[in-house]
Design brief:
Number of strands of chain A: 16
Strand content of chain B: 15-25%
Distance between the termini of chain A: 34 Å
Order of helices and strands of chain A: HEEEEHEHHHEEHEEHHEEHEHEEEEH
CATH architecture of the largest domain in chain A: 2-Layer Sandwich
Low-confidence stretches of chain B: none
CATH topology of the largest domain in chain A: Uridine Diphospho-n-acetylenolpyruvylglucosamine Reductase, domain 3
Number of domains of chain A: 2
Largest sheet of chain A: 6 strands, antiparallel
Mean pLDDT of chain A: 95
CATH class of the largest domain in chain B: Alpha Beta
Oligomer: heterodimer
Strand order of the largest sheet of chain B: 15-12-14-13-17-18-16
Number of domains of chain B: 5
Distance between the termini of chain B: 21 Å
CATH architecture of the largest domain in chain B: 2-Layer Sandwich
Helix content of chain B: 25-40%
Largest sheet of chain B: 7 strands, antiparallel
Helix content of chain A: 25-40%
Shape of chain B: globular
């Protein structure tokens, strides 16, 4: 439990005076994501601890350097859970980094992503001002939604100091149904899990196997599993699979290979799906491991591996680029934070 | 009562403006006379009124782009309006500005049953979208009380909520993509059919931006499957404190209802007098709880809710036997605002949100404030979310009554902030709550909001004077508070 807000503010003010860019780092578990930012390290890692947690409010507030593993542990003691199932990356991933890099797990389509759990946060802007946006209540529409805007910004708008999150009760029961089938059959079956009211929390396809995870009340899971094609998977194997998928460990990327990620409508561009591709999120997230130099289908992002010099997030239209550039200036007028981390031009 | 700062006179005469607009749209799409513009002078908060200078009702995106580019060039303010059901004077027109009415954008462009998504124009009514999706077994979850009339564009602008937010989220949680026309007339889309497109989340920034950042011309929203089973029950309590504690106890025990609403005695009796649904009028507080899911899930949850409420001291519990009875139990809650309205010439609806654990304390304090100001207050609210809707009864015809109601409302909202909540949970700041923004936010935070505004709208032409106060105002506010 350490509060180093004042120290972080001080470092930002020095960087501002000396015009020295800062590279904001938590536990450095996401250094392979995004582009490489050159700057002096601003470590948020020591800024740790649960600031408040009230199980009946379904709200936890933590400092940005608190690990996801720690949060999971604290919540589990009260039989609750983080809703968006983020990766823990060897138990090192921090809440600040998870939010900045927008990391959600296999349940994303049914329970929402980081953005849907965030209720508020503390932020140090490029002027060294420490501010609070949102709050600890379920609904709050006063002022612009600065908190959710940070999700996916890769720290380019400021230093996240603390995050307030909505949490939910832990699941009572879980089962994964496995069906061996070719990819086209899996694609045909997947939409059902968006349009039917079932306790589905994960749908993936890999190496000829369609897996559907059900989580919820005992009665709900028991009755739903009867309507899912396939056989129940051995629980330990199922847990290992969803862990591997969440932690992005299905593929091993290297300098010579690029792991591409496509986030798109679950039924869009189905012709790109082959029996050897990995589908997550009911087909709304697709992964391809390709040799460096080979371009993935339009709209994919260079998720991991290969060169990080070029743009990794795909093209941005000129109006969106202009608006994001101006927003960056509104938060960080001297471009201190993570230059180039999100886009080459920011 | 707040009034807009007097606008700087435009170089244009109204006649010139009308002529220029008619060159961009058909003549019948431009209104400038008092008689035709009268319906647009206010939104759902009718105590704030202002006749528009000129009203234009475009019907395609190219027209919106042309109008915006023109107004940008001429430095003419623009206020965007949907169905005008907002409750914070957010859509109140500008005396020397253009009112852009988006109701003709009323098409559901695409309904995709497989993706469970809809691409809609902003003027589509909230309920009409659910009706259109019904044949696919789907619906649009955010359901503000005004859902019969309010539009998706307005819902995005206000980040509208409703009774099912606790389980299914606000507008922002159900919005995948939004296309806007900027003040400069440029067209841009944020988000997409997939989840979590790369980069900063501008869909979230635009949600609830109250028409200050851009004109929503299209939205892609998620649709949800209708639950197999819905069950409604009502529990009566002999004090609001006990009912409030029961809410915290239920949520803490792990049950997340689809909706959990609370009414106090004044609201209960008003609703019962109005719609006669069988509410126990001797109860001090009533909880209405809706559960949804598969039949098996609902049966299990129903037992949990009944035993929780019984253990917490409910004096009676009534489980709806069928859909008809469930609808009647909801009817009382949904009619509560007009029912309270029958008891008084006017009422003023507040919208603070507080931590659930503070419900008992805040309701007790509201009762004390009600006595102090000598104005009755009925409480109807989204208990599961801690989103209060105190209804202050007053008589606008009585001199000073409105000011008294506003002062009482202000005290209630600052109380919400004091206990860790906010001045608005779902209605927005608009013009109405502008004076309270410095109470919730520091000058630095307000300056940051202003920076965001200027990034999108460099000359502050879009819905000027709303939602975000000036720093000058904040400083004056603080100097008065210190005196």
């Amino acid at each position: 439990m350490t509060d180093i807000t004042a120290q972080l503010q001080e470092q930002v003010l020095i960087a501002r005076t000396t015009e020295q860019p800062l590279n904001i780092v938590g536990a450095n578990t996401k250094s392979g994501l995004g582009r490489i930012s050159k700057g002096q390290t601003l470590s948020v890692r020591e800024h740790q601890g649960v600031i408040s947690y009230s199980p009946s409010e379904l709200v936890i507030r933590v400092r940005a350097g608190t690990t996801i593993s720690c949060i999971n542990h604290v919540l589990a003691e009260q039989n609750q859970r983080l809703i968006f199932e983020p990766p823990v990356f060897n138990e090192q991933a921090t809440m600040g980094g998870t939010l900045a890099a927008n990391q959600s797990g296999p349940c994303r389509p049914w329970f929402g992503g980081v953005r849907d759990s965030v209720l508020g946060l503390g932020l140090i802007n490029g002027l060294g001002e420490h501010m609070q946006f949102g709050g600890q209540v379920m609904k709050n529409v006063a002022g612009f939604d600065v908190s959710r805007s940070q999700v996916g910004a890769m720290g380019t708008l400021g230093v996240i100091t603390d995050v307030s999150l909505k949490v939910l009760p832990a699941f009572e029961s879980e089962v994964t149904m496995a069906l061996n089938c070719p990819v086209h059959e899996a694609l045909h079956l997947m939409p059902r899990y968006f349009r039917e009211h079932l306790p589905v929390t994960g749908v993936s396809f890999w190496q000829g196997q369609l897996l559907v995870r059900l989580q919820g009340s005992q009665a709900g899971v028991d009755s739903a599993m009867k309507s899912i094609p396939g056989e129940p998977m051995e629980p330990l194997l199922a847990t290992q699979w969803w862990h591997k998928l969440r932690e992005c460990q299905v593929f091993e990327s290297s300098q010579s290979q690029v792991l591409w990620r496509h986030n798109l409508g679950a039924t869009d561009q189905q012709d790109m799906c082959h029996d050897d591709c990995l589908l997550n999120w009911g087909g709304a997230q697709r992964w391809q491991l390709l040799p460096e130099g080979e371009e993935a289908t339009n709209g994919a992002i260079r998720y991991l591996g290969g060169s990080r010099e070029a743009e990794v997030n795909g093209p941005v239209n000129s109006v969106a680029r202009k608006l994001q550039g101006k927003l960056k200036m509104a938060f960080d007028p001297q471009s201190i934070f993570n230059p180039g981390r999100l886009y080459s031009w920011m | 009562m707040v009034s807009l700062v007097a606008p700087s006179p435009s170089a244009h005469s109204r006649k010139e403006l009308v002529a220029d607009l008619i060159a961009m749209v058909k003549p019948e799409q431009v209104l400038w006379d008092d008689e035709n513009q009268r319906p647009f002078e206010c939104d759902g908060l009718a105590v704030y009124r202002q006749m528009p200078w000129v009203t234009v009702i475009p019907d395609n995106i190219a027209q919106v782009q042309a109008i915006m580019a023109y107004c940008y060039g001429q430095q003419i303010p623009v206020v965007v309006r949907g169905a005008g059901t907002g409750l914070c004077a957010g859509a109140m027109p500008h005396a020397s500005g253009v009112l852009l009415v988006m109701t003709r954008f009323d098409k559901v462009l695409e309904l995709d049953g497989d993706l469970a998504q809809a691409r809609v124009q902003p003027g589509v009514r909230n309920l009409a979208l659910s009706e259109a999706a019904a044949p696919l077994g789907l619906y649009y979850a955010p359901d503000p009380s005004s859902q019969i009339a309010c539009t998706i564009g307005g819902n995005v602008a206000e980040n509208a909520g409703g009774v099912h937010c606790l389980k299914y989220g606000l507008t922002v949680n159900n919005l995948l993509a939004v296309t806007i026309v900027t003040m400069e007339g440029e067209l841009v889309t944020f988000g997409g059919a997939g989840f979590d497109t790369p980069g900063m989340d501008l869909v979230a920034l635009l949600s609830g931006s109250e028409g200050l950042l851009g004109v929503v011309v299209e939205a892609t929203v998620r649709l949800l499957p209708r639950a197999e089973k819905v069950q409604v029950l009502m529990a009566a309590f002999d004090s609001v404190q006990v009912a409030g504690d029961a809410v915290a106890e239920l949520i803490g025990s792990g049950v997340i209802p689809a909706g959990l609403e609370m009414m106090d005695q004044l609201a209960i009796t008003a609703a019962e007098d109005f719609v006669k649904v069988g509410y126990p009028t001797d109860a001090k507080a009533l909880l209405i709880c809706e559960l949804d899911g598969t039949s098996a899930e609902v049966a299990q949850q129903l037992q949990a809710v009944k035993s929780c409420f019984t253990d917490c001291g409910a004096t009676s519990i009534r489980v709806a036997k069928d859909a008809d009875e469930a609808a009647r139990l909801w009817l009382g809650r949904k009619s509560a605002f007009p029912a309270v309205g029958r008891m008084s010439p006017d009422y003023y609806c507040m919208d603070g949100t507080i931590p659930r654990s503070q419900v008992g304390h805040v309701l007790t304090r509201i009762a004390e404030l009600s006595v102090h100001y000598d104005l009755p207050v009925a409480n109807v609210f989204h208990a599961g979310d801690g989103n209060l809707h105190p209804l202050i009864l007053f008589n606008d015809a009585q001199p000073g009554d409105l000011e008294k109601a506003e002062a009482l409302g202000g005290d209630i909202l600052t109380l919400c902030v004091d206990v860790g909540g906010t001045i608005t949970g779902e209605h927005g700041v608009g013009l109405e709550k502008l004076p309270l923004m410095p109470y919730q936010f520091s000058d630095q935070e307000v300056a940051q909001f202003r920076g965001i505004k200027l990034a999108f709208d460099p000359h502050e032409q879009l819905n000027p004077g709303k939602a975000i106060p000036t720093l000058k105002y904040c400083q004056e506010y603080r100097s008065i508070q210190h005196d």
